[in-house]
Amino acid sequence: VVKYPQAVEPLWHEWDRKAQKCGLRHTFYAVNGDQYTGEWLDNLKHGKGTQLWKRTRAIYSGDWKFGKRDGYGSYSIPDPVTKEYKKVYNGWWKNDKKCGYGEMFYPGGERYEGEWSEGLRSGWGRMYYRDGFIYEGQWLEDQPHGQGMLRLANENRYEGGWKDGKKHGPGKFFYLDKGQLLEGVWAADIPKCGILIDFRRDEAPAPTQYPIPKV
């Protein structure tokens, strides 16, 4: 019987195992200049950590799972003029995309707070627009869709159905400045049919000259 010597594991295998980032906090510099400081698991970002992208100077700080943003975290970018960091998104992530409840800050002071799915506004949410409008209701793939209310800057409001970001289906439009109410059916933002009646006309700041006669 010929006995062969037992294979000896090369030293570089042991060195490689020791170099694997796992559990402890490490700082890693990518070839493109990106930087990550945080926890690792099996050589992947996993746990708490902060990522800095060199090209955009954007920063994400929060939870990671197997190399992707997953859990709770915030994403910030530097102001192009002051260079000070301003928060863009603060909330939950899944598989590197916004998912769950979160708050998004847009240029010009617009803001959204509510639910997300696959990086898009989906579910219930409230959007504050720069013109003073506020939409509160259901969303689907970044558009108002379902039931919701849009309040205008002058306090007039629409309550009813939405589809693809437009008024669609049964709804009510309250013209509180004139003291009137339009109840009807909308299609692609246009009222197709309905009934216009006086509504709190005595409280309206600019009521119509004559009341609407009752049928």
Question: What is the overall silhouette?
Answer: elongated
Mean pLDDT: 90
Q: Report low-confidence residues grouped into runs of 5 or more.
A: 12-16
Question: Within the largest sheet, what's the order of strands?
Answer: 1-2-3-4-5-6-7-8-9-10-11-12-13-14-15
Q: Architecture of the largest domain in CATH?
A: Single Sheet
Please work out how many helical segments DSSP would assign: 1
Helix/strand/pairing category = mainly beta
CATH class of the largest domain: Mainly Beta
CATH topology of the largest domain: Histone H3 K4-specific methyltransferase SET7/9 N-terminal domain
Task: Explain what this protein looks like in three dimensions.
- There is one protein chain.
- With 215 residues, the chain is mostly beta strands.
- The chain folds into 2 domains: 1-105, Single Sheet (Histone H3 K4-specific methyltransferase SET7/9 N-terminal domain); 138-214, no CATH class.
- 4% of the residues lie in helices and 58% in strands.
- It is built from 1 helix and 15 strands.
- It has one helix at residues 11-19, and strands at 25-29, 35-41, 44-52, 59-65, 68-78, 85-94, 97-105, 111-117, 120-128, 134-140, 143-151, 157-163, 166-175, 180-187, 190-198.
- It has a 15-stranded antiparallel β-sheet with strand order 1-2-3-4-5-6-7-8-9-10-11-12-13-14-15, with no helix packed on it.
- The protein is elongated, with a radius of gyration of 28 Å.
- The model is unreliable at 12-16 (pLDDT under 50).
- Keywords: Cytoplasmic vesicle, Repeat.
- It holds the Pfam family MORN.
- This is MORN repeat-containing protein 3.
- It comes from Baryphthengus martii.
- InterPro entries: MORN, MORN3.
